Structure formats: C-alpha cells, structure tokens
Amino acid sequence: MGASLAGLLAAHVLADHADRVTIVERDRLPQEPEQRPGVPQGRHAHVLLEGGQRALDALLPGFMDELRAAGAPRVGMPSDLVQWQDGRWFRRLPATTYIYTGSRPQLEQLVRRRVLAHPMIEVVEATSVVGLSGDASRVRGVLLRERGEGSRQEERLLEADLVVDASGRGTKAAQWLSAIGAEPPHEESIDTGLAYATRIYCDTSGSLGTQSLGYYVIANPSQVYGTVVLPLEDGRYLVTLSGLRGDEPPTDEEEFVAYAKRLPHPLVHRWLRTAEPQSPVSGFRQTANVRRRYDLPGRRPAGFLAIGDALCTFNPVYGQGMAVAAISAVALRDALADRRRTPTTRRVQQALLAASRQAWDISAGADKAMPGAIGNALTIRPIDRPVGWYLRRVQERSPGDPVVGRAFRSVLTLTAPVTALFAPKVVRAVLLGPVPATPAEPPMAREETRT
Predict the structure, then answer these.
(1) What pLDDT was estimated at residue 383?
(2) Is the pTM of this model over 0.85?
(3) Which residues contact 277 (CB under 8 A, 6 or more apart)?
(4) CA distance linking residue 349 with residue 329, whole number of Å
(5) Other Cβ atoms within 10 Å of 439 Cβ, number
(6) pLDDT of 451
(7) What is the pLDDT of residue 374?
(8) Distance between CA 312 and CA 353 in Å, rounded?
(9) Which of 35, 161, 166, 253 would disulfide-bridge 7, Cβ 3.0–4.6 Å?
(10) How many Cα neighbours within 13 Å face the side chain of 22?
(11) Which of 413, 237, 80 is closest to 227 using CA atoms?
C-alpha cells in the first residue's frame, strides 16, 4: 500500500519471494521527477544520510552512482556547511561523512525506475485502499476503490497472501484492523509543535557553492528557531525555516524573509535579502514522532506488516525518513532470507521496528527536551538522566573536538550504533577533556588541517 520510497523498496525485496507483487498507489505516478500530492513533504528539505546510502546500494547495486550522475549534491560534514548549534559554530574540519541533498522527487523517481523494471512487480495507480479483507487471525487482501472523475466507485477485492502498509504517516491501518476484528497497535507519540516553511532560491551573491555549500542552524530547547539552506541538483538552493507551535514560520513571501531575523545570527537573513526567489513558500505542520507498536502482544492478524512512516515516523528536522526506509527494507530482506528462523509476521515486524529504533531514540530523545512538547512518550526513565548528562557533554564537544565530532556524526547518520559514543577515546574526551574552542563568527572557509 503506497509507492513511497518505503513501499517501492519493500516491493523490490518481496519480488524475490512471491509470484507477483502489486503496489497500490493513490496518485498517478509521474514519468519525470515531479512533485505529487501523495508526498506532502516533497517540496521540503530532504537529505539522504550515509546509513541510507549504504542500504540503497545494498538493495539496488550501483544506485548511488546513478544518484551522483543525476547531479544530486554531495555535502561533506562538517567541512561543507556553516553550522551553528547551542551557541557554537562548528569547526569546518575535513569531512567524516557525506549527505546527499537533492530533491525528494529526483531520488524517488530513480528508485521507482529501478524497482518497476522488475517483471514481478506491477502498479495499480490512481486507486485508494479503503479497507482490509480477512479477520482477526489473518489478512487476506485489500479493498480498493478507483479515484478520479469517471472512475468506478464500487469497491473491489485484491487478494493477497501478504499486505504491507507503506502508506505513510497518514495510515488508516488502525481503523482497518479494527473493522476486521483485530486490535490496532498502541501508538507512542511526541509532538514538539515544530512547523516549517520552505522556498527555493538562486544564489545571486556567489557566497555559496565554493567555500561552503550551505547553512545549518539547529534549534534546541533554549533557542527554538532553525534553518537549513541546501543545494539542489539544478544549482538552486532550498531554504527551510522552522519554529514551534504558536510562532510558526509564515507562508507569506515577504514575512518569510523577515522571520529569518529570529535566528540567532543574521547570516541567513542577509543571504535571503540578496537571493532570488524561485518558488512560492510551502508550509508543513505534521511533524510529530509517532511509533506504532505492532511488536507488542495483541490480537493482530498474520499476513500484515507495516513499514516506513506507517510504522515509525520522525520529526522531519532530523532528516532520517529516507534512510530509515532503506535500512528497514534491508531488515525485511534479511529477515526473509534467515534460514535459521521461520519468518512469521510477528518476527519480521519486530525486525522492522528494530531497524528504526536508533533513529527513534535520536529524534524522540531530543524532542522530549523541547519546550511545549506533548504526547504519551514523554516519560523520563531513570536511565535517561545519566545518559542525557553524558550526551549533553558530547554535544558540547562535537562542534570543536574531531574525535567526539566524528563519533557523534556516525551515530546521527545511522552508520554506527550509539555505543560508538562510548568508545574509550570518545569517553576520555567527553569526561576528561575541556570544551574545545570553536569559531566566534561563522567560519566561511574550510579548515585544511588533517586530523
């Protein structure tokens, strides 16, 4: 259900285990990399973290070469960004990881072209899933209804041995499961009220593209405004401004630039005043972290799995969604290929949840501390206090300490487990070393020192 990135990659994996895989998609899929209604975040900033890059290459060999050939910008961290967090500018040391910052439609179109070339995979477009077929013990298919003028409005059944929900954060699976007598999953949520607005610009000043490729201001509990200015594949720049509930960034074009004055430094506001707008302003408000616990005991049917945002959706400010979709598809592949264990619905669903756990811990853990956060997953456990104390020291040192910064980025980009932050040399720097000096003003040039 859904030709999202998660749905496409799940279909690709399942094609090795089924006679036929059918993707049901509510939109008509574009032939070119274009925005579509079913991806409401498509106009906003998307980054592909290194963990997602590795997963995509594992699933679709050579994919990252294709993405580079298509012009997707490759941005080194921390060397290529002028970055601010918690009162400190980051030293622009040589990169230890890279992100790709091209548009979501471009990446999705490349994945779609590779996946839909498989002879076992077919797509039913302009069609909505309106319910499940089966009972509390097993799902046996989905109920479909065509969309659009002149389409047939009666429901029809598409039988299936396995149904995968990849319909995104707006999934209706809870209602559909209840309708067949099954128990919907318990939902955990944390909502900071984050809202953001995005516009595309041309850089007329020439200040981006050589010494720095973008700007990044990270919000925190004491400074709640953020921004990211990132390059797109066509040479333009995507600018996103963010704020919290009650002081959301505007979609009015004049007010959009003025809102940048709230940032802790005038760097981005000055740049916006000289840059040339290339699009209207688009807003987005649905940014809660939500995790659906299909792994917990309950009256749930076999033959039904959730993946991607339909299983676990994150505050988009952390840029994890596409990477987790790819990492989860690898987890699906590995669970189905494991000869030691029968891939029951429950066991595979547990593997999918485990694949998203680190991203959830990062996103939900950080959002617990944001002012005004609401939700049923805000409880502070006893272990959270000492871990939080240690992680605050990590964050204080990561802008200026090469050892701590490398480890921290490896965790944030989902290429290393959280235990990387407790390696002996990192612990020594965090517990015994001073907070290193960082630039007093925005560092407009890279550091050449090799560390």
Answers:
(1) 84
(2) yes
(3) 199, 200, 201, 253
(4) 12
(5) 17
(6) 43
(7) 96
(8) 8
(9) 166
(10) 15
(11) 237
**HSE of 322, CA atoms in CB hemisphere, 13 A:** 26
DSSP state, 130?
E
Tokens of 410: 């490896």
Q: Which structure tokens are listed for 381?
A: 């456990």
Give the separation between CA 367 and CA 371, rounded to whole angstroms: 9
DSSP letter at 93?
Answer: P
Q: In terms of residues, how long is the chain?
A: 451
* Cβ-defined contacts of 77-82 (< 8 Å, 24+): 77/409, 77/413, 78/399, 78/405, 78/409, 79/446, 79/447, 80/212, 80/213, 80/214, 80/446, 81/212, 81/213, 81/214, 81/215, 81/216, 82/212, 82/214, 82/215, 82/216, 82/267, 82/442, 82/443, 82/444
Start-to-end C-alpha separation, the chain: 47
**Sign of torsion, CA 141 142 146 152?**
positive
Strand partners, 200: 238
Q: Which residues of the chain have pLDDT under 70?
A: 150-152, 449-451
* 417-442 pLDDT per residue, tens: 999 999 999 999 999 999 999 999 99
Which tens digits make up the pLDDT trace of 159-214?
999 999 999 999 999 999 999 999 999 999 999 999 999 999 999 989 898 889 99
- Given a contact cutoff of 8 angstroms between Cβ atoms, the answer to whether 164 and 12 are in contact is no
Give the gyration radius of the chain's Cα atoms: 22
User: Quick one: tokens of 399?
Assistant: 């802008």
Retrieve residue 8's tokens. Answer: 């496409």
- Give the span between the Cα atoms of 87 and 22, in whole angstroms: 50
In sign, the C-alpha dihedral spanning 366, 371, 374, 377 is: positive
Q: Cβ distance 298 to 323 under 8 Å?
A: no
Tokens of 278: 């290339």
Quote the CA–CA distance of 439 and 298 in Å, as a whole number: 53
